[in-house]
């Protein structure tokens, strides 16, 4: 049996250096998690390794590719206090797996496999290496076709919600400057 404290320490070693910006840190840690886990995932064998981008872009040079895009973010104060308050920053993202040209006879299989494996990797690593202690939550995967210039690419879109709790000086009444 593994010591829980040791297991926690082991996971934290994969946490990337934090920038202090929650939105940026969520995206960078998610990008690193996918890069690390998909590279060695025996069930995620593609002819070519998918490039991972920390933003959605129309300048993707080749497919398959993964783009991580923040769709919204909001902050709620969870406690009231003079010294320190607890906040919840909820970051909503879409992970887009662009698989292959729709004319490729294996496009649908590639995209469904990719969407499934990415969802599985995120579920297994829902704490985002210790950064998201409440756990990442996945929405329903959709499979749209996306236009890139003259190509139509089959894709999987995986919605992810990252709730991040943190403590900070209260912005409310009674806070010291």
Helix share, percent:
25-40%
Number of helices: 3
The first-to-last residue Cα distance is 48 Å
How does the overall form come out from the CA principal axes?
Answer: elongated
Query: How large is the share of residues in beta strands?
Result: 25-35%
Structural class: alpha+beta
Average residue-wise pLDDT? 83
Please count the beta strands (DSSP E, at least 2 residues each).
Answer: 6
Query: Can you write the helix and strand succession as a string?
Result: HHEEEHEEE
Written description of the protein model:
With 177 residues, the chain is α+β, with helices and mostly antiparallel strands. It has a single domain, classed as STM4215-like, CATH 3.30.2000.10. It contains 3 helices and 6 strands, in the order ααβββαβββ. Strands 1, 2, 3, 4, 5 and 6 form a 6-stranded mixed sheet that branches. Strand 5 and strand 6 form a beta hairpin. Helix 2 packs across helix 3. The longest helix has 18 residues. It is elongated and about 60 Å long. The termini are far apart. The relative contact order is 0.20. The N terminus and C terminus are likely disordered.
Short description:
This protein is of the alpha+beta class and 177 residues long.
